Amino acid sequence: VQVVESGGGAVQPGGSLTLSCVVSGFTVSSYPMTWYRQVVGKDSELVAQIAQGYGETYYTDSVKGRFKISRDNANNAVYLQMSSLKAEDTAVYYCHGYGHRGQGTQVTVSS
Question: Which region, left, alpha or beta, applies to residue 83 given φ > 0 means left and ψ of -120 to 50 means alpha?
Fold first, then answer.
């Protein structure tokens, strides 16, 4: 099993980024897929989740209306579209599913 995140980077407040999570070894549409984020010294935070099957979505309150999680079954990938980014969104973002997590991708929001 491999879970590989990409798409992080440095962006100014108000900017946008799209994170990608490409999976091999299991089918993303068959399991809940979750984006977490973690800041050094703090607990990880569930940011967004997409359910298996029909793909109902869940967002933590702080990102509602700004982030969108989606799934690409053909490419076995999950995405996190982030807009109106704030400094407090700065963290390492991890993709998780079927008990596996990637190495993470750093998002830094700073002017």
Answer: beta
Helix or strand holding residue 25 (H, E): none
DSSP states of 33-100 as a string?
Answer: EEEEEE-TTS--EEEEEE-STT--EEE-GGGTTTEEEEEETTTTEEEEEE-S--GGG-EEEEEEETTE
Q: What is the pLDDT of residues 22-44, one digit of tens each?
A: 999 999 999 999 999 999 999 99
> What 3-state DSSP class applies to 29?
helix
Which residue is associated with the tokens 């869940």? Answer: 58
Nearest CA among 93, 89, 96, 87 for reference residue 34: 96
